[in-house]
Amino acid sequence: MDWDIVIGLEVHVQLNTKTKAFCACKVSYGDPPNTHVCPVCLGYPGSLPVLNRAVVDSAIKLGLATHCRIREYNTFARKNYFYPDLPKGYQISQYKDPICYEGYVDIAVRGEQKRIGLTRIHIEEDAGKSMHGEDGTLVDLNRCGTPLLEIVSEPDIHAPEEAYTYLNTLKQIVRYTGISDCNMEEGSMRCDANISIKPKGRKALGTRTELKNMNSFRNVERALKYEAERQRKVLESGAAVTQQTLLWDEQSNQTKAMRSKEDSHDYRYFPEPDLSPLRIDDAWIGRIRSSLPELPDARKKRFTELYGLTEEDAALLSSEKEIADYFENSLQTFNNPRLTGNWVKNEILRILSESGKSAAESPVTPAALAGLLQFLHNNTITPQTAKTVLDEMAATGKAAADIIRDKGLEQISDSSELESLIETILKENPAECERYRGGETKLLAFFIGQVMRGTKGKADQTLTRKILEKKLG
Ligand SMILES: [Zn+2]
Questions:
Q1: Rounded to whole angstroms, what are the CA distances from 303 to 122, 125, 297, 316, 459?
Q2: Which residues does residue 244 pair with via DSSP β-bridges, in sequence order?
Q3: Sheet holding 147-153: strands in order across?
Q4: What residue ranges do the domains of the chain occupy?
Q5: CA of 179 to the centre of ligand 1 (A)
Q6: pLDDT tens string 225-248
Q7: How far is the CA of 91 from the centre of ligand 1 (A)?
Q8: Class in CATH terms, 415-472
Q9: How many angstroms is it from 233 CA to the middle of ligand 1?
Q10: What Å distances lie between residue 55 and 52, 105, 118, 149, 397, CA to CA?
Q11: How far apart are CA 349 and CA 357, in angstroms?
């Protein structure tokens, strides 16, 4: 029997506002435990929360970037449960009326565009953190009250790889808006998934399980693959899937039962009496709309149309706002999109990953790269030399022109100089000459290699090839 897979994702994004959602404590990760706390986020009786406007701004930003409707009248709700890292005994969240709703994200799967609906995006405060050690459990309440957005997708995802692509696309959008760095490994983006399967074409959904504890997009994909397969085996054996929460175990590559399902009514949501309703008017939405940058999809489209880049290159160069900005800033100095695109994609990204820096902090500035590429474009230096020069630019911060001049790296395109070198090489390699003349023309690469070695990579390749072909022919 064929099965349909139905996946829904709940993503939590940690916002990078300066202060917490309902108090003036600093949002800061990695500081000594319990140093950013106050009566409000510690839940002292009688303390009152005050909504942080920047949190609302962030929610509207993401809502607009994902084509959501923005709710005019918003209320907050208490989500009640007991846990030692939640001193108030509840989280302030939104329940029936999320700030953003009915949005979508377009993803590219197998060369086609697919639209994933968003049910809602709502504001929520985070809980603290329990640290389980050998001597017991300690609690750090710095994270209590830090702002989150929860993004809930419609059950439009029908394959684990679509979930992977959706998460990547969502992350790109969030990072473009600048409201979070969305790093799943560091916990600033977290994802829970639910999955069910049903006989192909049937309308009614099957019993779903929830998956938690996945700390990378790849693990979400792996866990969903594993779980779809597990459910299929259960159903094909004639048994029923149990509704439950499962933890992904990275070591054994399996899901493991955590606890039986807690239904949402267990949280006993009720209206937060300490916060008045929040009204968002059109002027507020308009202000946020005008502050949004061009988003990844639009930028990618522009890169293909304006610069003639391939889909693949445009997608890569627009994947991060900083990289896209780097690329376009470089074009301001030297407008050769394809050449620049190739060098950003291959060499600059390599240098950034080796140095652990972001594109905005690149040791080679966009203008400096443009300077180097001009020398390459006018054939002053060979591509091989250009790479060496770039590495030295990254290491020393010197300009391409200085390195090329100081080290005498200009390309050798003087034919008499190359000719005499080539004659020496041919004399030193009589056997290869014989074989070449006997039809083994692929030996040309060997001779070019010899010339490059003799000139430390500075010989003009086209000219070298021409002279070699003439002399060997
Ligand atoms: Zn506080």
A1: 33, 38, 10, 10, 34
A2: 260
A3: 69-70, 100-109, 112-125, 147-153, 3-14, 189-199, 209-214, 244-249, 254-260
A4: 3-286, 294-407, 415-472
A5: 20
A6: 999 999 999 999 999 999 888 989
A7: 14
A8: mainly alpha
A9: 49
A10: 6, 21, 20, 9, 39
A11: 10
Q: Is residue 411 within 8 Å of residue 460, measured between CB atoms?
A: yes
Taking the centre of ligand 1 as the mean of its atom positions, its distance from the CA of residue 37, in whole angstroms, is: 4
Question: Can you tell me the distance from the alpha carbon of 296 to that of 316, in angstroms, rounded to the nearest whole number?
Answer: 10
User: How far does residue 291's CA lie from ligand 1's centre (Å)?
Assistant: 29
Q: Is 34 left (phi over 0), alpha (psi -120 to 50) or beta?
A: left
How far does the centroid of ligand 1 lie from the alpha carbon of residue 147, in Å? 12
Q: How far apart, in whole angstroms, are the C-alpha atoms of residue 273 and residue 71?
A: 20
As a whole number of angstroms, the distance between CA 69 and CA 101 comes to 5
Residue with tokens 């889909």: 311
| pLDDT tens by residue, 139-174 | 999 999 999 999 999 999 999 999 999 999 999 999
**DSSP H/E element including 6:** strand 3-14
Q: How far apart are the CA of 21 and the centre of ligand 1, in A?
A: 9
* pLDDT of res. 129: 93
Expressed in angstroms and rounded, the spacing between residue 140 Cα and the centre of ligand 1 is 13
Measured CA distances, 184 to 16, 292, 352 (Å): 14, 24, 20
For ligand 1, the distance from its centroid to the CA atom of residue 88, given in whole angstroms, is 12
At residue 326, φ and ψ (nearest 5 deg) are -55, -50
- What is the average pLDDT across 400-425? 87
**Tokens 């003799």 correspond to what residue?**
454
CA 42–ligand 1 middle distance (angstroms): 7
Angle at 81 between CA 80 and CA 82, to 5 degrees: 135
Question: What is the CA(134)–ligand 1 centre distance, in A?
Answer: 29
Centre of ligand 1 from the C-alpha of residue 221, in Å: 37
* DSSP summary character for residue 263: P
Distance (Å, rounded) from C-alpha 246 to C-alpha 368?
51
